Structure formats: structure tokens, C-alpha cells
Amino acid sequence: MEIIKVIILGIVEGLTEFLPVSSTGHLIIVSRFMSLKGEFNDVFNIVIQSGAILAVIIYFWKKVFPPIPKKGDKEGVGKFKKYILLWTKVVVAVIPAAVLGLIFEEKIDTLLSDSMPVAIALIVGAFLLIFVENRKHEVKINHEDEITYKDAFFVGLFQCMALIPGMSRSASTIIGALLLGFKRSVAAEFSFFLAIPVLLGASLVKLVKAGFAFTSFEIVLLLTGTVVSFVVAYIVIAAFMNFIKKHDFKVFAYYRIILGTVVLLLAFF
User: Under a CB-based contact definition with an 8 Å cutoff, are residues 224 and 121 in contact?
Assistant: First the structure.
């Protein structure tokens, strides 16, 4: 029975991690009806995010691990410099959420246990998405090379909204990027890149706090959930990148409103 739960939770994580609909919110909601035992459930929900992150790394392999240029290869050196610049901007963008996350970690864990703030955040985030999409979207940044450190920090500030369960890290960064004039595909890619250090760091912190003290069965559960989330997330990333070439993000906003409303009704009744 636990294996079935793990597979379902892994599918939910893989489906929702990179869509602007809040994977944490979905896992909290699903866990209310299908949770693992004790504190292991919270650890599991965080650690399986590493499977989704591995999917990003594989999908964007050339941008995450560009080849080291050979001596005299000016073109290769130029590309490698652009790679370094991109990832220093990612680091700058990660700083605000990393600092606030460490400060308010206990408060965030408290919020994670209640579906009410998750539902409210889902709905509020939906209206923010609709707001930025209804604005005249003047594209100023068509390629990741055009992102400045100021732009990266601004997007990082918006990522802090994701510390509220239900807001969605993906939605928060995309909202900030769209306000700056990012092309939708560039906004999505930059959001994916930001996820790598953020989610890997969160997984590592949870594992360290747990002391890596897991039974052999719990290790099997963690590995199963991580593998499932990886496979599903890879498929979702590919589909999502194709989808936003022709569509905006409003459909995700409408979904968030419906889901948030359902959660609110469940909380009251």
C-alpha cells in the first residue's frame, strides 16, 4: 500500500513541480487523504523534488553543463563565458529566497500543515497570473543573455512569494519575469534554472535534519518516489515548453482558482 502511495505522490510532484500551480500545495492536499507515516511524510515530499530537478538537468543538459572549450576555440570560449554569466545571475536570484527561507523556516513548516493558507495562496497567485497576462506584454528580453543582474535579483525577490505554500515557486518567478518583459519561454527556462539550487538545497537540508536515519524500506520509498517524479517531470517539461510557445499562462490561473475553491470547501465542510 505504501508503494502505491509513493507512486501517486511521485506522479503529483512530477506533474506539478514546474507548472505554475504549486507542487507543494498539491502534495499537501493529496497527503491529507493519502499520507505516509509520521515526519517521514514531510521529508519525502521535499526529497522527491530532487527527481524533478534531475529532469531539468537532463532536459537542459547543454545549458547546465556546457563543454569546456578547447585552447584557441574563441567561439567555445564565448559560449562558456555566457554560461558562467547565466549561472552567476541564477545565484544572485536565489539569494533573497535562501535568506528568508532560513529565517522563517519554522513558520513555513507550520503553514505546511494547514490547507487553508494553501487554498488562499492558490487563488491569490491565480489572480496575479491573470493580472500580468492582461497587461500589455511588451517583450524586452528575448534571450537569457539579455538578462541583467538587476533583472535576476528582481525575479529572485518575486520567488520569495513561493515561501508561502500554495503560491508556487514557478508561478512566482514567472510573474516577476513577465513584469520585467521576459519572453514567456525565457521566463519559464529561467524559472527552471532557479529551481535547481533551490530545490536541491531544500532536499539536502531535510536529509541532514533527518540525519539520513532511514530504514531500508524508507530508502526504497524515497528512491521510488524520486524516480517516478523524474520520469513524469521530464515529460511535463517538454510538453510545457511546447505549450507556452503558442499559449499564455491563464489556463493555469483558472485551474488554480478551481482547485483553491475546492480546497476551501473541503476545509469548511
Answer: no
Give tens-digit pLDDT for 172-218: 999 999 999 999 999 999 998 998 887 777 777 767 776 667 788 88
DSSP 148: -
Domain span at residue 85 reads: 2-268
Give the burial class of 208: count Cβ atoms within 10 A of its Cβ; 0-12 exposed, 13-18 middle, 19 or more buried.
exposed
Look up the pTM and report it. 0.85
Number of structural domains in the chain: 1
Those residues with Cβ within 8 angstroms of residue 55's Cβ, 6 or more apart along the chain or in another chain: 14, 229, 230, 231, 233, 234, 237
Helix axes 169-180, 184-210, angle to 10 degrees: 150
Q: Please, what is the Cα angle at 25 between 19 and 31, to 5 degrees? A: 125
